[in-house]
Design a protein that fits this description.
single chain; alpha+beta; Ubiquitin-like (UB roll); DNA polymerase, domain 1; 2 domains; 9% strand
């Protein structure tokens, strides 16, 4: 597997979750362990560009695949556009859910660009717009206990070129 552009050996124990591989074996603690049940989204990472919950995934399932964590988003020490938008629009308070929120937002933007509809997409034949309702629906699997939801939505809209 490749993690943040670096080849990584899979653990010998096939029961190791992708989350535990990242945090405990590779020291990539930006990906958070929240509920360990796939309900909070704090452990969201990107695999081949698609968002997944790393707490529900076994590391061995991703042999030969590319995993991108929050640590891998910065380029040359500079924040990526979604990370920057979260700072500019106060899309975090305590910051615990922020890595998962950012990874999920990047995966969500890719889904919108592909034209993949969500439950609230009004027109299934046209272009999907990154409206606040669309973003809220798509990000509903990522919980923020601090109440930074409005800042998160504004940040994602700005990063997607659809908001303030």
């Amino acid at each position: 597997m490749v993690v943040n552009g670096r080849p990584v050996r899979l653990p010998e124990d096939p029961r190791v979750s992708l989350l535990d591989l990242l945090r405990e074996h590779l020291g990539l603690t930006g990906t958070k362990k929240g509920c360990a049940q796939g309900a909070c989204g704090a452990c969201t990472v990107l695999v081949d560009g698609a968002r997944i919950l790393s707490c529900l995934a076994l590391a061995v399932q991703y042999s030969g695949r590319s995993v991108l964590t929050i640590e891998g988003l910065a380029e040359d020490g500079q924040m990526g556009p979604v990370q920057r938008a979260f700072v500019d629009h106060d899309g975090f308070q305590c910051g615990y859910c922020t890595p998962g929120q950012i990874c999920s937002a990047i995966g969500m933007a890719t889904e919108i660009e592909r034209g993949a509809p969500s439950h609230v997409t009004a027109d299934l034949t046209g272009t999907v717009e990154a409206s606040a309702a669309e973003i809220r629906e798509r990000m509903s699997g990522n919980l923020c206990r601090c109440g930074a939801h409005n800042g998160i939505i504004a940040a994602i809209q700005a990063a997607c070129g659809a908001g303030p």
